[in-house]
Amino acid sequence: MTSPLTASTPEVRPEVRWTPRLWGTLLVLCAAMFLDALDVSMVGVALPSIGADLGLSTSTLQWIVSGYILGYGGLLLLGGRTADLLGRRRVFLVALGVFALASLLGGLVDSGPLLIASRFVKGLSAAFTAPAGLSIITTTFPEGPLRNRALSIYTTCAATGFSMGLVLSGLLTEASWRLTMLLPAPIALVALAAGLKLLPHSARERDHRGYDIPGAVLGTAAMLLLVFTVVQAPEAGWAAARTLLSFLAVAVLLTAFVLVERRSPGPLVRLGVLRSGTQVRAQLGAMAFFGSYVGFQFLVTLYMQSLLGWSALHTALAFLPAGALVAVSSTKVGAIVDRFGTPRLIAVGFGLMVAGYALFLGVDLHPVYAVAILPSMLLIGAACALVFPSLNIQATNGVDDHEQGMVSGLLNTSVQVGGAIFLAVVTAVVTAHTPENAGPQAVLDSYRPGLLVVTGIAVAGLLIALTGLRDRPARASVVVARSTTPEAERVPVRD
Length: 495
Prior knowledge:
The chain is mainly alpha-helical. The protein has two domains: about 400 residues, MFS general substrate transporter like domains (Growth Hormone, Chain: A); about 55 residues. The chain is built from 16 helices and four strands. Helix 4 packs across helix 15 and helix 5 packs antiparallel against helix 11. The radius of gyration is 22 Å and the shape is globular.
């Protein structure tokens, strides 16, 4: 029996070189990640136009964003394990096709509920493409410099897509909000056509122990209810009976999920993965990283548009230096990881993030962009360039191929749940400090406690990262997710 923390020599694989076909494979996977980020950032700027055109209330508009988060965050664990069991290529391509159809539907409907439904389906499909795509990379590129470079390029596409989405949404919304919904459809179809030819056929697990249906039901229900409760809590009230009962139900579902997973011969999430400090730090770091950034981006967007009177395009361009810095550094991060290791880069990145957030606390109602805002954007951009690829590398290193989808789903779940929880907390803090009929200065003052919370979340991420510096480096990989199941019980089947 192999311990989850057993040090072992990495599996010897045939030499992998950067052939044109391999670049094409990575490009297809990057396109899906790019679309996920693009879609999230584009819809926010288009919400006022959508509300005016379809006659939707503010609470209904919220669900155009929340519906996507609900489908994405609630089904990631199921998506990751499904990729392992049914085949990563198959799951990725089917989900990408569904994403394209949902994008087309979202741009054509004239009903608020149908638009929200299309957003939920898009989030659901992203919950399958994200872990499947990441696990295709980690099983195609051997652990080490090649995988590090591939993951740095892959994760950079998320930041690039998010930044471009902000700019494109400002331009497209001027013509029609429907263009922001339709744009991902042709890109997804092109990526789907290319993926059919380029993506490698992967071995899928024919699990004689059976599928973990109870675990899948409990895990998915717990994540869906958790995300739903967090999203609704600011509106319903954190101390409201409905909110408290929902959190209690989440706790019950998660407890039942853990009990089922401990006894299941083929669990949805093998809990032994979380015995590794390296893995736990990656998951907690992902929550702190994305949660703090989403909260920061939310407050800064309000500050620029509501208080400074900047247009959507002007606001998007203000964020652009951060995304541009990430895009420019994409080819360098892999080599930096090879030299210094993920724990150091994550710690340095969180330090830069804390500095960027703290620096922004001093803004006023008449800022000079180059002095008051640009330094924070550059620091945060540098932090994103270091932290996000390093977290992905740290979470997937030392994990057996047949569990890469599971770990990828777990990491993406941490990202989405962290974003949902901390954004709701920041929103609640700002709302509590905003007086009625407040003037511009009072509104700005109400933002500062929210910025302090954002900074505190990043500080927590830094402290978590610093604990990883105490680990002694080892030449051999540490296996954090090796199954105890004999190899004879896993029969590879090409999808």
